[in-house]
Amino acid sequence: MLFSPMPALAKLFPFGAVTEEHFDKLFNINVRGTLFTVQKALPLLKDGGSIILNGSVASVKGTAAFGVYAASKAAVRSFARTWTTDLKDRHIRSNVVSPGPINTPLANSLSADVTAQLVSTIPMGRMGEPEEVAKVALFLASDDSSFVTGIELFVDGGRAQI
């Protein structure tokens, strides 16, 4: 595990070191948790509402030792696609916000060298701010995005695009 101060969800597991416990924990939280939370919330959602799922740039980058986490976020992306068609009669939009590296307490626990290496992979040359992710989520929740559904919107300084 590369980043020992990080919680278990953010630790990197090389392919040969992945355990069933690690796999189950990530998929239970990111996939099972998402599915059943949204399912239980559906009766409370008004027709024409918006579901915004939390994805990650990791689902498309192929980062070494991040395969299980990336796969769990790819599954979340798949939910947005299928729920777009499943919920079309209710006009409920389903989208994914996929942040890249964001200045959070978790990211701030990384060493300066790791942070510098991470920033070097971001075309904008900096970490994102939580407010930048929030603004994208607000857009997807608003009527300004009334014709937007089934997408994954990256808030990552261009990292997923190169």
Uncertain stretches of 5 or more adjacent residues: 1-7
Shape: globular
Helical residues, percent: 40-55%
* Overall average pLDDT: 92
The assigned structural class equals mainly alpha
Number of E-state strands: 3
Radius of gyration, CA atoms, in whole angstroms: 16 Å
- Major sheet: order of its strands? 1-2-3
Through-space gap between termini: 26 Å
Describe the biggest sheet?
3 strands, parallel
Can you put this structure into words, describing what you see?
The protein is mostly helical and 162 residues long. It is built from 6 helices and 3 strands. It has helices at 20-41, 58-61, 67-86, 105-108, 112-119, 130-141, and strands at 50-54, 93-99, 152-155. The protein is globular and about 50 Å long.
Task: Name the features.
single chain, 162 residues, mainly alpha, 6 helices, 3 strands, 43% helix, disordered N terminus
List the helices and strands and how they pair.
Blueprint: H1 20-41, E1 50-54, H2 58-61, H3 67-86, E2 93-99, H4 105-108, H5 112-119, H6 130-141, E3 152-155
Parallel strand pairs: 1-2, 2-3
Helix pairs in contact: 1-3
Give a nutshell description of this structure.
It contains 6 helices and 3 strands.
